[in-house]
C-alpha cells in the first residue's frame, strides 16, 4: 500500500480557484483494490461557497451572446482533445474500464459534447405569433434559469459530466457540479483546463464529495433552481423529496433493465456480435446495457450456443492491456452485489453457462486484488425473480425463450424500468409494431447505441423524468417567456 502522502489529493474548484478541503474520502483503483486518490469530503460550507460564486458569475455570463459562449465551449473541446491520452489513462485508473474504451469512447465523446452544444446553441429560434384581431404581436424568449446543480455518476465519469455542463453553460447558466466521489479525477483535470479555455471564474464550479453530504446540500439549496441528475432510481427519489419544497426543475436519467427481443428471422451473426457488446461493454456498467434477452423458441438453442461462445471470447483483465474488452468493476461492494445476483439466480434454479463461478480469470499479479468479473450468461430464471426485475449493472445477462410477439412484448414491459430496448428482426412491419408497443425511451432495431446528440435521450417509468439532447437540453436549461406587445 502506498504511503498516504503519495496519493493524489484533489481540491474543489470554486470561483475559478482550487480550494483545499479539510476532510477527504479514499478513492480506490478498481484494478488493484488499493487507495490511490483522496477526494474532498465536501458539505454545506463548500456548496454554499460554490453557489455564491456561480450566482455572482451568472449576470455577466448569461448576457454574453451565444457566439461568445460557443467560442469558450469549442476551446474546451480542443483542450480535451489535446489531453486525450492523459485523460483516458486517468479515467481507466479511476473507474476500472479499459484504457481502450476510455480512449475511443469516453474522452472523444466528452470533447464532442462541448462541440455539439457550442454549435446547437447557435441554431435555436424563438417563435412569433401575430394576433391582429387583438391588436397584438406575441413572441417568446428563452432565458437561462440561473445556477444549475449537476450530479453525474461513476460509470462514464467525464462523458456524462460534460453532457451536463456543456448545454447548461451554452444556454447561459452557471453551474455547480458534483461528480461521483468514486470517480472524481477527470473532473478535477477538466477544472485545470477551464481558465485556459476562457471560462470566467464562477461559471463552472466543481464540488467533490458524497451524495448524502455534498449532493444533499446542493439539491436542497434554495438558490439552485434546477437539478440534472444521472444515477440510480433510489437516489432520484431522495433528490425529488429534497427538491420538492423549492419547486425545482428536475431532469433525472435513471436505471434500466433493458430487453433485447430476438425474432426467428434475425440476422444471427450480426445479432450475436452486437448483443455481446450491448450486454458486456464497460463491464456492463452502462445504463443502456442489455440485461434480458428474449429469443424466439425455434432459434433459442442456436442463439444460446453462439452467444455463450462469443461471451467466452469477451476478454476481462488488466485495463491497460489493449487485448482486453473489459476491465474491473467500480468497487469491491459493487462486485459483491453483482456476484450476489448470480448466486441468487443459481439458488432459484438458473444455469450459469459462462463467467462467474464457471470460468477462471487469468489475472496478472498486480491485479490480483482488483474487482474483476468475467462476462456471465444465465438461463432458466423466472421473470418474477429479482435477477430479472432489478438493475444489476454488471457483466451479467439472462437469456429466455418466447413463443409469440405478444408474449415477447409483454415480458419486455414487465419491469418497472423503461430506458432502452433492442429489436432483432428483418420484418419491417414487426419492427415498427414492436417499437411502438415496447415501453422504452429508446428503441434500437438491428443495432445498439447508435446515438445522435440531437435526438431525445431518456426513459419511461422508473427510468427517469425528462429528456436530454439538442433541443431537449436547451429547453430544460432555459425558461420560456411569452411577451405580448400591443400595437
Describe the structure.
This is 2-aminomuconic semialdehyde dehydrogenase. Keywords: Cytoplasm, NAD, Oxidoreductase. The chain contains 15 helices and 23 strands. By secondary structure, it is an alpha/beta fold. It folds into two domains: 8-254 and 463-486, 3-Layer(aba) Sandwich (Aldehyde Dehydrogenase, Chain A, domain 1); 258-445, Aldehyde Dehydrogenase, Chain A, domain 2, CATH 3.40.309.10. Strand 19 (420-424), helix 14 and strand 20 (442-445) form a beta-alpha-beta unit.
Which word captures the global form?
globular
Helix share, percent = 25-40%
State the end-to-end distance: 76 Å
Number-wise, the strands total 23
- Which secondary-structure class do the elements indicate? alpha/beta
**The CATH fourth-level homologous superfamily of the largest domain:** Aldehyde Dehydrogenase, Chain A, domain 1
CATH architecture field of the largest domain: 3-Layer(aba) Sandwich
Cα gyration radius (Å): 23 Å
What's the level 1 CATH class of the largest domain? Answer: Alpha Beta
Low-confidence stretches: none
Main pleated-sheet profile: 7 strands, mixed
Q: How many independent structural domains?
A: 2
If you average the pLDDT, what whole number results?
Answer: 97
Classify the beta-strand content into a percent band: 15-25%
- Spatial strand sequence of the major β-sheet: 15-16-17-14-13-19-20
How is the CATH topology of the largest domain named? Aldehyde Dehydrogenase, Chain A, domain 1
Amino acid at each position: 500500500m502506498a504511503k498516504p502522502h503519495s496519493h493524489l489529493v484533489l481540491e474543489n474548484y470554486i470561483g475559478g480557484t482550487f480550494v483545499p478541503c479539510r476532510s477527504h474520502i479514499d478513492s480506490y483503483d478498481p484494478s488493484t483494490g488499493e487507495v490511490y486518490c483522496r477526494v474532498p469530503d465536501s458539505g454545506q460550507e463548500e456548496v454554499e461557497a460554490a453557489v455564491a460564486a456561480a450566482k455572482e458569475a451568472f449576470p455577466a455570463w448569461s448576457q454574453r451572446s451565444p457566439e461568445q459562449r460557443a467560442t469558450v465551449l469549442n476551446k474546451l473541446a480542443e483542450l480535451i482533445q489535446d489531453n486525450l491520452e492523459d485523460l483516458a489513462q486517468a479515467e481507466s485508473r479511476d473507474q476500472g474500464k479499459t484504457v481502450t474504451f476510455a480512449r475511443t469512447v469516453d474522452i472523444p465523446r466528452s470533447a464532442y459534447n462541448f462541440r455539439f452544444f457550442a454549435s446547437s446553441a447557435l441554431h435555436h429560434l424563438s417563435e412569433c405569433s401575430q394576433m391582429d384581431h387583438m391588436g397584438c404581436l406575441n413572441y417568446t424568449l428563452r432565458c437561462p434559469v440561473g445556477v444549475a446543480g449537476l450530479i453525474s455518476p461513476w460509470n462514464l465519469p467525464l462523458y456524462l459530466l460534460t453532457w451536463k455542463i456543456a448545454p447548461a453553460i451554452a444556454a447561459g447558466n452557471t453551474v455547480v457540479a458534483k461528480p461521483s466521489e468514486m470517480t472524481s479525477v477527470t473532473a478535477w483535470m477538466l477544472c485545470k483546463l477551464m481558465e485556459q479555455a476562457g471560462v470566467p471564474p464562477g461559471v463552472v464550479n466543481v464540488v467533490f464529495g458524497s451524495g448524502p453530504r455534498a449532493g444533499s446540500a446542493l439539491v436542497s439549496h434554495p438558490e439552485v433552481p434546477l437539478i440534472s441528475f444521472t444515477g440510480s432510481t433510489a437516489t432520484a427519489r431522495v433528490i425529488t423529496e429534497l427538491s420538492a419544497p423549492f419547486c425545482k426543475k428536475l431532469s433525472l436519467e435513471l436505471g434500466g433493465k433493458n430487453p433485447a427481443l430476438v425474432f426467428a428471422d434475425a440476422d444471427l451473426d450480426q445479432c450475436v456480435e452486437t448483443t455481446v457488446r450491448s450486454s458486456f461493454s464497460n463491464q456492463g456498467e452502462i445504463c443502456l446495457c442489455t440485461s434480458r434477452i428474449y429469443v424466439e423458441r425455434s432459434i433459442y438453442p442456436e442463439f444460446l450456443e453462439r452467444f455463450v461462445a462469443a461471451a467466452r471470447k469477451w476478454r476481462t483483465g488488466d485495463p491497460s492491456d489493449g487485448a482486453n474488452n473489459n476491465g474491473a468493476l467500480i468497487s469491491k461492494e459493487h462486485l459483491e452485489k453483482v456476484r450476489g445476483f448470480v448466486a441468487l439466480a443459481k439458488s432459484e434454479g438458473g444455469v450459469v453457462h459462462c463467467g462467474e463461478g464457471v470460468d477462471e480469470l487469468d489475472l496478472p499479479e498486480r491485479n490480483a486484488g482488483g474487482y474483476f468479473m468475467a462476462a456471465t450468461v444465465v438461463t432458466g430464471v423466472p421473470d418474477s425473480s429479482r435477477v430479472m426485475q432489478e438493475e444489476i449493472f454488471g457483466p451479467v445477462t439472462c437469456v429466455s425463450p418466447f413463443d409469440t410477439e405478444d408474449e415477447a412484448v409483454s415480458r419486455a414491459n414487465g419491469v418497472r424500468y423503461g430506458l432502452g430496448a433492442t429489436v432483432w428482426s428483418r420484418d419491417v412491419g414487426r419492427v415498427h409494431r414492436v417499437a411502438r408497443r415496447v415501453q422504452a425511451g429508446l428503441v434500437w432495431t438491428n443495432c445498439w447505441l447508435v446515438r445522435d446528440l440531437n435526438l431525445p435521450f431518456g426513459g419511461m417509468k422508473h427510468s427517469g423524468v425528462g429528456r436530454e439532447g439538442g433541443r431537449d437540453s436547451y429547453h430544460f436549461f432555459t425558461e420560456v417567456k411569452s411577451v405580448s406587445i400591443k400595437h
